[in-house]
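Annotators were shown the component list below and the corresponding predicted structure, then asked to write short factual statements about the assembly.
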Amino acid sequence: MVTIDPTKDAPDLADIRPSTRTVKETTGYRIFKYANYFTLLMISAITLYPFINLVAKAFSAEGYIAAGQVNLIPRGFNTTTFAAVMSDSMFWINYRNTVVYTVVATAIAMVLTTTFAYALAKKHLKGRSIFVGIAVFTMFFSGGLIPNYLLINSIGFKNTIWAIVIPNAISVFNLLIMKSFFENFPTELEEAAAIDGLSTYGIFGRIVLPLSKAVLATMILFYAVSFWNSWFQAFLYMDRSELYPVTIYLRNLLAAATSMEDMGSDNVQIASNVQSVTMVLTVLPIVCVYPFIQRFFVSGVMLGSVKG
Amino acid sequence: MSTDVTINSADRSSTAVETVAPPIKSRRRNKRGGYHQTWREAIRKDWRLYTFLILPLVFLAIFRYLPMAGNIIAFRRFRPGGSLFGDYWVGFYYFEMFWNDPTFWRVFTNTIIIGALSLAIVFPLPIILALLLNEVRVRRFKRVVQTITYLPHFMSIVIVAGIVFQLTSLDGTINQIIRAVGADPISFMQDPSWFRPIYIGSEIWQTVGWGTILYLAALTTIDDQLYEAARIDGANRWQQTWHVTIPGITPTMVVLLILNIGSFLAVGFEKILLLYNPLLYPTADVISTYLYRVGIASGSYSYSTAIGLFEAIIGLTLVLSANAISRRLVGSSLW
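Structure shown to annotators:
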């Protein structure tokens, strides 16, 4: 399958720059080199530690957590909390909501962003710079929390999926990435298709989109991760627990624990165990796909930076 | 426009041969040598492309520009259930109100302190990490460090907040270390003096690795002949970094700095909302969280819109001035 993949031409950021290969190894530089490896190892360890700690707590017995004895390895290994959280039907309802919201929101966002970017990428289009300006201005000035809140409520989106999947449908950052990709799309292909009698719709649907799969995949991932992780829209507009995404489920656990801690209750430790399990289950899908999608994200950001 | 219309209505009544002629006659060459196109001609030719714009523009009009217009309630009395744009004018009443509100000035100060700390501490760290990564000569090692440090960027803010609670709780890792050295455990999330370090620490953890990408990308564009020339001139590795690498990534630094300055006042609203509690208000409460409480929790819509508008205008002013200054001083800017 042929695709135009600008990410393939992007430099691999893990590549070693030639300038470092030819550095003269003075004693000073050698000391720096080892200190540098050590520093980077420490940074990696510190970055990973909270995740390992979460997993350890998720599988530990409450007594050990309460005594402050759990750090890297689970102590009093058990899976009872896992079983407890996973048997909570509300957790699964919220989890399913997250999946549904993410899929619908990503689909809407992709339709709007792709068509918008394609039209804006046509240099001959009259009024193009005005439309680009209209979009870019929203990056630097926005309506603010309250007017948005009042608007969403007044159009009846409260307690509906639309409050989550519509208001953030166009990310201007993603729009600019797509636009610069379409601008570099080989015009000969489109001209040939036009001569063969395809209309703009035909060219877009049958020539441009199939050839842009790599960029479309990157955009889908950008949107999907941001919708998967979002919580604030749901926090503002959802009143009923069966509509919550899993991030709100988790937020409510955290909030309950914090207020208990304020009152000095003993339930804090139990909460800590449940929290860890819920967090592990929430991040699991992202951590699992992360090694495979990371490349797309990196190249997507670099596509965007070409413009800036 | 009016002449166009008359020509066109005349066209319709005349023969087919004549209909082609008038538009060609009316075309003028513009400066670039192309033909000047009227909107009517453009839409007739590209109407399919314009249909692509309809939905996105409707979206922007409703969900971006309508709320912008909704800011007008900062100057008007708003009644719940009444018009989105308020009932009657009250002038700068709400602005005077927050101007005289001591809580506003407390959250304003907190915002500036947290924003300044982020700019001073969190902003430079990705640059340093990118420079350190640049000195690594083992490709595999570099890739592993990159993969690990990018990971927190993909976590929901709720997860980050949860991790902060876990690490700082009385039985958490930080207090385990404190106990191990024989000191008394600290209730971090109930002590206002600890909020800023915790907030900045979590920002560093989540953003520094991912922040290196743009710098590493900029590093790949630096011409190796520059390093060679520097070496011939006797520059050691440190001098090469200082005189070749840093200037090479300066445009990237400037652009990111401008963007950071623009969001200076919008400091991590969602994260603070998740992390703070009334005990932490003295240091943790910022403009956006105060606005949220006053507006959505207490329903003082006009008052909090006035605060939000004030914040947005400062933000816009900061971006524009940072951009203008950097264009003059460094020669690189956003636009």
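Statements collected:
1. Residues 12-78 of chain A form one domain.
2. The two ends of chain A are 31 Å apart (CA to CA).
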